[in-house]
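Entry 14. Structure prediction run on the chain below.
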Amino acid sequence: MAESATQSKILDRGLQLLIEVPAVVITFVMMAHVTANAVLRTWFDSPIDNTLEMVEYWYLPLVAFLGFIAAQHRGQHIAADLVFEMLPTVTKRFVLAFVFLVCSAVVAGFAWFGWGEAVHAMDIGKTAGVSDLVAWPAYFLVPLAFGSLTIQFLVAAWNALRHPDQDHFVSDVGDAAVLEALAQDTATHDDAVRLGHSHKAGGDR
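Output returned:
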C-alpha cells in the first residue's frame, strides 16, 4: 500500500514537472527574446523581425494554456467556496462532483470549437497577422489544453465521489504540506502567546 502511494506521488510529481518545466523555459525564452529585441531596436536600430507576432501567437498561448493545466493539476484555480462550506457534509461531494462535471462539459465545448478553428487555420495556412510567421500550429493548443482540462475535471468529479473526505481544493501534496506547516506554525505561535501571558500574570502576582 505504501509502495503504491509512493509510486503515485512520483508519477504525480513527474506529470507536474512535465507541465511546468516547459512553461518556465518558454517564459525565460520569451523574456530573452523581448529584451534582445528592445536592445537591438533602441541601440542598433535593428529589431528582431516578427517579435510581437511571436509573443502574441506562440509564447503567450503556450504559457497560458500550460498554466491552465498546471493550475488544475495543483488545485490552484480560484475557488469561491463560501456557500459550499455551509452545505451539509453528506451533500458536499455530490455538489462538488456536479460542479466538476459542468466544468468538464464547458471546457469540452471549448475543445470542440477550438478543434474546428485549428483545422480551418491549418487548411488556409494561417500566419500571424500580416507577417509571414506560421501561426496555424499554435491553434491546436486550444483543443489540446481544453481536452486535457476536460479529462482533469472528469477525474476530479470521480475523486470527489470516491474520496468525500479529501480536500479537493488542495490536490497537490506539496501544497497540503505547506498548509500543514502553516497550521503548525500558527499553533506554535498561539502557544507562545499563551505562555507569555501566563508568565506575565505570574509576575504581576
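The two ends are 56 Å apart (CA to CA).
Filed with the rest of this week's runs.
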